[in-house]
Amino acid sequence: MPAGVGVAAFVRAYGAFPLPRDLNFLWTVGAMLVALLALMLLSGLTLALTYTPDASLAFSSVEALERRAPSGWLLRSLHMTGATFFMAALYLHVFRGLCYASYRAPRQGLWTIGTLLLVLVMVTAFAGYVLPWGQMSYWGADVASKAVGAIPLIGGTLEQVFLGGDAPGSATLHRMFVLHFTLAFTIVGMVVLHVAVLHAKGSTSPSYRPGSGGASGATLPDAAGRSRMLPFHPYFTVKDTLGVVVLAILFTLVMCFWPGLVSEVENYRPANPLHTPANIEPEWYFLPFYGMLQAVPSKFGGLLVSGGAVAILFLVPWLDRGTAATCAAGRWGGLRWLPCVALAVLACSFVLCGLAGRHHVQGGWMLVGRLATLGYYLYFLAFLPFYARLAQKELRS
Ligand code: HEM
User: Does Transport count among this protein's keywords (predicted)?
Assistant: First the structure.
């Protein structure tokens, strides 16, 4: 078969892919993520043309790009603003998955690939933040290396491997540059797999939300015998394009009029190992995990709790054993409102952990940080198993 025919057949198959017609705007976030990923790759590859991963040259190579290369400031702004928007969109995408239980059978594999993507994106973002070699880059790498060093038995070795020496320096920068570059392409491969699995398993829909009383019916014909599904093209290509255009407008507004939102003043000072900044804190998207890290008195305990907050996402499909049938089931013991309250507690806990992290979990923020960490874990370890069991009991009775 000629290649052109194969491509045409592939595009036709994807264009005809049936999707539930009640998909809301949260289902456009996936397309936004794809658009942002393309932007990050293109701007990142261009930035890499002038970047020098050496402790004595990294900061000035970025400065030279910003001040002297044509449109260099624009390239860097696109990449920095892109990182913030990518992480915000990613958190919204995961939250959508939790809201609508998109992780349930048969999509456990899709969810697992998604969580793996989340980990890869987080590591890539961390490695990227070290590259400009400003004060926050240096001290961020220092804090992270000490956290890794707190792991019993292997911590010391891991710290050495991470730093390439006793303190952050050129060897660390080389490692972070290679990691940042390699993971970016790994993420592209994983996204292709993610979308391919989605096409094999099909989408969930808003009427599948636990407690909604709707459920699996989204894919069946309605009472009048009409299909509830619509082809991807033109219905969802138009919707996704609109989502990406709105995102582009927001993106441009933030990049041009509110650059302080996506950058840290302290990181415009070159790394200085002899001067510790008064406020060492990570980028906003890591603050909730930083808050959890600090809310626990022991270093290793904090590492377990904050790492566990991401790792627990891998277990979600097995913590919530609900099915489409239990989703539609009856009265939920009169607790139909519970999923909404539980999700609100989860979202508030995540934000409060971030705020506590921002305040270095000191004074009253210690209590807030601990309660919020508890709230976060309760959603996964108490609410999800309990609610699914309640629904299953009702279905049997
Ligand atoms: C680089 C990061 C990611 C990209 C580019 C991406 C892209 C996409 C796209 C394009 C879709 C289809 C449109 C939509 O439903 O919004 C999708 C669906 C989905 N994604 Fe992601 N995703 C990413 C990360 C994640 C993560 C971190 C998770 C979960 C931990 C996840 C879980 C899901 C699930 C469960 C669906 C299916 C939703 C449904 O049932 O309709 N994804 N993703």
Answer: yes
Which numbered atom of ligand 1 lies nearest the CA of 121? 1
Three-state DSSP class for 50?
Answer: coil
Please, what is the end-to-end C-alpha distance for the chain in angstroms? 56
Q: Enumerate residues lining ligand 1, CB below 6 A.
A: 27, 29-31, 33-34, 37, 90, 93-94, 97, 102-103, 107, 110-111, 114-115, 117-118, 121, 187, 191, 194-195, 198, 203-204, 313
357 backbone dihedrals φ, ψ, rounded to 5°: -60, -40
Q: 18 — alpha (psi -120 to 50), left (phi > 0) or beta?
A: beta
CATH of 11-280, one of 3.40.50.300, 2.40.440.10, 1.20.810.10, 3.90.480.20: 1.20.810.10
pTM: 0.94
User: Ligand 1: which residue has its CA nearest to atom 17?
Assistant: 30
Residue type at position 263: S
The CA 141 to ligand 1 mean position distance, Å, reads 30
203-250 pLDDT, tens digit per residue, is 998 876 665 544 444 556 666 666 778 999 999 999 999 999 999 999
Which part of the chain has CATH 1.20.810.10? 11-280
